[in-house]
């Protein structure tokens, strides 16, 4: 075995040369890897005894893509394109041996090999779209030639990985290897190629699949339609479609050149910069300064959920999905049956869409046990309380859990606002108590706020972070304060939205401005969806707020066909002249002077106080870092990834400008706009919230 460089070895075994890359953690295509790859290929080619070359990776995965940390820096030769050309034009067959995840540039490397062998657990994909770019090393040109335009569009636009069995069926992989015996299988495959004198198959020369798509613009129209909603506001996806279209219409070399041009232009743009920042921010969130990665976690083999309502049911599904059995508790047989029924129906709906087999639905339901007596949770390793948002009730639940839960069990509350330390004090084991704040719908939204109380044990926090990952969520550790990070920052936005409509903007103006900014929904459409009567009661309602008036008028949101908006049968929203009149009357009664309000003011009034609240949260240490706040807003509230989160966005505007605007608003509108001392300090120092 010869070392080509620090990350590349070449081993010759008879007629087979094996190039082995070993660049932890994920064999990303750094300058060293590119150098090693080219050096090893040259050596293998120069060796006359070598008749075939196997390319394999050490560690957990085949190449997982370009090195994202190198993006935005001046590129250093040798460039990836050169390495790819060397592979594809090698005079001896190159077999890529794939395990783990062959993603992005890694998959593109494999597509320049003449043949591919993979273990069944391997995954393939082109996730570039998630980083705001398009594949830049031939992915949009070679993949359509290999699997056809429709499938390639789906792989590239979804950014989602596909498994080895699909890869085999689609012809991406030529042979499957036994798990753990990849090198042997790839070598055997290479020997067969030598024996058969097999041709050097270059994907670039395949034409049948792209010929079939020529003259069929409807294929591209369908892709555009399928992804338009998902990518509203994003730039890269249209370029991806254009590039695949080039694969059909242009010669290979030209298609490749244009692909690279578009990829580089996107990479230099603001959207990709924000999306790359989010990639690293999400991984950073799992790192807690005073909790080492070696901190022992507690095994979680059985979960208990208290409350089988919408939240409890959604929470339970997360664990059932990954094979962790759940016992779910309700107060009455009727409520329990209803809760279980809804979970089953959710799964059956997924099965109907073809995303789950009925056998899998049954398996998940078999892992779910309903219970009416708290003692059924005595063996759970983790209990999550999801009852009404009421402190007395929660304390009562925790006192009872304390009496029955096994030692070391983690006791979690799904509260959205309440003081975890006060809840923990209802037990004799506050070290085992923390908050696990799921976002509705709990089985869908990726965010999990992990609320660390004053006495929460490190092992409990580490376990929660690990568990978040296991159920496919992004866990963010936050401190105890009213509304934690997400809802605490939502509050000033909602407050300003309500003030704006009294001052003269319409609810639809406010919603439109925020939707144009990139949020999935404006505050008033959101209120209508959630129900205006959440926390409202007829008995105490006194027409004192706009919300009380609307509720008393029977306008309680979508479910009543009317809220801020009017709704038709299909729940399409229409602006309501009646609501405009109600708002006008209410403003008059309150003595609020009305005026025309520009879109720019609406946006600044809604967003800047959020940033200011984020600064307060940071100052108080309730978030560990500004990027954690951004991860919360991206994954819990649909903040557009291409704007990188509110704190990243503040940096992009400039903290001096944010502060100046807050001061201007304060002078005109009062102390709701008092700048946070941290914002003042940072603006004065020319500092930034995040490193990007
Ligand atoms: N570049 C740099 N660092 C990377 C990286 C990459 N591509 N992928 C992962 N890391 C780091 C990550 O930050 C973390 O570091 C550690 O590796 C483990 O990651 C030309 C231009 C491979 C499925 O988008 O999807 O190719 O936090 O915690 O859950 O067309 O990482 O430990 O310091 O996520 O086991 C396309 C991105 C690039 C793949 C592994 N490729 N990576 O998941 O571990 S664009 C991607 C992933 C491109 C070409 C274009 C995942 C993973 P640290 P992890 P994991």
How would you describe this structure to a colleague?
- By secondary structure, the protein is an alpha/beta fold.
- It has 28 helices and 20 strands.
- The two termini are about 40 Å apart.
- Helix 5 packs antiparallel against helix 10 (about 235-250) and helix 9 runs antiparallel to helix 10.
- It is globular.
- The strands form four sheets. An eight-stranded mixed β-sheet has the order 13-12-11-14-15-16-17-18, with helices on both faces. A seven-stranded mixed β-sheet has the order 1-2-3-4-5-7-10, with helices on both faces.
- Strand 2 (about 10-15) and strand 3 (about 15-20) form a beta hairpin.
- (2S,3S)-3-hydroxy-2-methylbutanoyl-COA binds near residues 64, 67, 101, 131 and 280.
Cα-to-Cα separation, first versus last residue: 41 Å
Can you count the helices?
28
Alpha carbon gyration radius: 28 Å
Q: Quote the average pLDDT.
A: 97
Largest sheet, order of strands side by side? 13-12-11-14-15-16-17-18
The kinds of small molecule bound in this structure are: (2S,3S)-3-hydroxy-2-methylbutanoyl-COA
> Helix fraction?
40-55%
Number of strands: 20
**Which structural class should the secondary elements be placed in?**
alpha/beta
How is the biggest beta sheet arranged? Answer: 8 strands, mixed
């Amino acid at each position: 075995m010869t070392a080509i460089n620090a990350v590349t070895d070449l081993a010759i075994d008879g007629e087979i040369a094996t190039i082995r890359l070993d660049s932890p953690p994920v064999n990303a295509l750094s300058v060293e890897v590119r150098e090693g790859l080219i050096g090893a290929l040259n050596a293998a080619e120069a060796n006359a005894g070598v008749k075939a070359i196997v390319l394999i990776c050490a560690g957990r995965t085949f190449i997982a893509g370009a090195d994202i940390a190198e993006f935005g820096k001046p590129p250093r030769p040798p460039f990836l394109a050169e390495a790819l050309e060397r592979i594809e034009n090698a005079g001896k067959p190159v077999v890529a041996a794939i395990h783990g995840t062959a993603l992005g540039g890694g998959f593109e490397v494999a597509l320049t090999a003449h043949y591919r062998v993979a273990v069944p657990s391997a995954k393939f994909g082109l996730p570039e779209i998630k980083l705001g770019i398009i594949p830049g090393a031939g992915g949009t040109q070679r993949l359509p030639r290999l699997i056809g335009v429709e499938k390639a569009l789906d792989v590239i636009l979804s950014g989602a990985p596909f498994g080895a069995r699909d890869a085999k069926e689609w012809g991406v992989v030529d042979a499957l290897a036994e798990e753990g015996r990849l090198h042997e299988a790839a070598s055997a495959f290479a020997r067969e190629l030598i024996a058969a004198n097999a041709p050097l198959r270059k994907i670039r020369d395949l034409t049948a699949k792209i010929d079939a798509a020529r003259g069929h613009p409807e294929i591209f129209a369908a892709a555009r339609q399928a992804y338009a909603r998902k990518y509203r506001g994003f730039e890269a996806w249209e370029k991806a479609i254009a590039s695949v279209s080039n694969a059909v219409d242009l010669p290979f070399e030209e298609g490749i050149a244009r692909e690279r041009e578009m990829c580089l232009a996107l990479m230099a743009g603001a959207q990709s910069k924000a999306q790359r920042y989010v990639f690293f921010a999400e991984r950073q969130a799992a790192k807690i300064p005073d909790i080492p990665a070696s901190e022992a976690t507690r095994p979680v083999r059985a979960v208990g959920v208290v409350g089988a309502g919408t939240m409890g049911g959604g929470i339970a599904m997360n664990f059932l999905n990954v094979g962790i059995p759940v016992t779910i508790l309700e107060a009455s047989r009727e409520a329990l049956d209803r809760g279980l029924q809804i979970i089953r129906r959710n799964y059956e709906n997924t099965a109907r869409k073809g995303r789950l087999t009925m056998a899998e639905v049954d398996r998940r339901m078999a892992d779910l046990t309903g219970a009416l007596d708290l003692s059924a949770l005595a063996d759970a390793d983790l209990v999550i309380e999801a009852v009404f948002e009421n402190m007395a009730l929660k304390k009562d639940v925790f006192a009872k859990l304390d009496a029955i839960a096994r030692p070391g069990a983690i006791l979690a509350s799904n509260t959205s606002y309440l003081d975890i330390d006060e809840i923990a004090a209802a037990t004799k084991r506050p070290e085992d108590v923390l908050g696990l704040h799921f976002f509705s719908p709990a089985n869908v939204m990726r965010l999990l706020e992990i609320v660390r109380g004053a006495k929460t044990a490190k092992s409990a926090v580490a376990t929660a972070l690990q568990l978040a990952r296991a159920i496919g969520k992004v866990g963010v550790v936050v401190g105890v304060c009213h509304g934690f990070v997400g809802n605490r920052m939502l509050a000033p936005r909602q407050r300003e939205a309500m003030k704006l409509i009294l001052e003269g903007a319409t609810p639809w103006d406010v919603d439109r401005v925020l939707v144009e900014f990139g949020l999935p929904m404006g505050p008033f459409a959101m209120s209508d969806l959630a129900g205006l009567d959440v926390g409202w009661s007829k008995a105490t309602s006194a027409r004192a707020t706009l919300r009380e008036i609307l509720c008393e008028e029977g306008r309680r949101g979508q479910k009543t066909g009317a809220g801020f908006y009017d709704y038709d049968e299909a729940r399409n929203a229409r602006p309501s002249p009646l609501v405009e009149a109600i708002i006008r009357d209410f403003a008059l009664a309150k003595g609020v002077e009305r005026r025309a309000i520009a879109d720019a003011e609406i946006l600044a009034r809604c967003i800047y106080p959020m940033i200011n609240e984020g600064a307060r949260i940071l100052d108080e240490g309730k978030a560990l870092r500004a990027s954690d706040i951004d991860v919360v807003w991206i994954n819990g509230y649909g903040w557009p990834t291409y704007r990188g989160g509110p704190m990243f966005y503040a940096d992009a505007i400039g903290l001096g400008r944010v502060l100046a605007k807050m001061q201007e608003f304060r002078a005109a509108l009062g102390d709701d706009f008092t700048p946070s001392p941290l914002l003042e300090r940072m603006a004065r120092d020319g500092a930034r919230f995040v490193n990007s």
